[in-house]
Design goal:
single chain, 20% strand, globular, 8 helices, alpha/beta, two-stranded antiparallel sheet, 8-stranded mixed sheet, 36% helix
Length: 261
């Protein structure tokens, strides 16, 4: 079974966590794919350049100048740094964006109505990815050669335009297309009932329970797209989905998602 592992920007931005994760990931047996974020660093560089990072419902609004920054950060430093660390640990990795070998195409997102049902937002140069947009033949070819793909969140529309996509969306689409196990790893032990209590891990979440958690304010901001994409992955063919800490990659811990109510 192929494993698709996603790590968030807080892990990528923490060198100790990242190095430990890369050691564990490299030691994982079997075919695997890594998808990484980098939003923490991207926001810091935006601020240093005098830009104001804008996120709405956990998703980054990407104008032309923001697109340049996230491409430099995601497809540049983050992607190559992660790839180099995996090589150091004996994992023959290759860093990719969606435009490389046209492995992932995206469609520019039209203006979207927010959860309040009223507000409409144009996210700019943001791409939506479907599992049909993933070149699984190319990924399987790499895996058959013992090469581990490492995807950043930059894609293209096939018309010469780069697009920024939420890394959770990339991971969900790739896992669905490959029928793989999806492991979403970040700095917490799972989805927490109390964000200030690292031990308050919710062991199991269904779609209806997810809606209730959002209504109650337990799940908000960046966790919303993470869970939305995770459930979408299950509906579209992923074998299973677990959300856990990057430090617990090889354990049975975390929050398991299922479609069974």
């Amino acid at each position: 079974m192929i494993k698709v592992v996603k790590i968030g920007g807080n892990v990528v931005d923490n060198e100790a966590l990242l190095q430990s994760f890369c050691q564990d990931f490299a030691a994982m047996e079997g075919p695997k794919v890594l998808v990484h974020g980098g939003g923490v660093m991207a926001s810091a560089i935006q601020k240093a350049l005098g830009q104001t990072p804008i996120k709405i419902e956990g998703r980054r609004v990407t104008d032309e100048e923001t697109l340049k920054v996230v491409t430099m950060v995601y497809a540049g430093w983050c992607n190559k740094h992660v790839t180099a660390l995996l090589q150091q640990n004996g994992c023959n990795a290759i860093g990719l964006s969606g435009c490389d070998a046209s492995v992932i195409k995206a469609e520019k997102r039209p203006p979207r109505t927010l959860l309040d049902g009223v507000t409409v937002v144009d996210y700019g140069f943001v791409g939506d990815v479907k599992k049909e947009s993933v070149n699984t033949a190319f990924i399987h070819q790499l895996l058959s050669l013992g090469i581990t793909p490492v995807f950043c969140a930059i894609n293209h529309d096939g018309k010469g335009n780069l697009l920024n996509t939420n890394a959770d969306t990339i991971a969900s689409s790739v896992a669905s297309a490959l029928g793989a196990t999806l492991l979403c790893c970040f700095e917490k032990k799972g989805v927490l009932m109390d964000k200030d209590d690292d031990e308050s891990v919710i062991p199991h979440i269904t779609p209806s329970y997810f809606k209730q958690l959002v209504q109650d304010g337990v799940v908000d901001a960046g966790m919303i797209p993470k869970l939305e994409n995770s459930f979408k992955a299950l509906k579209e063919g992923a074998a299973s989905v677990v959300i856990r800490s990057s430090e617990d990659l090889t354990t049975e811990s975390g929050t398991t998602l299922s479609l069974d109510e």
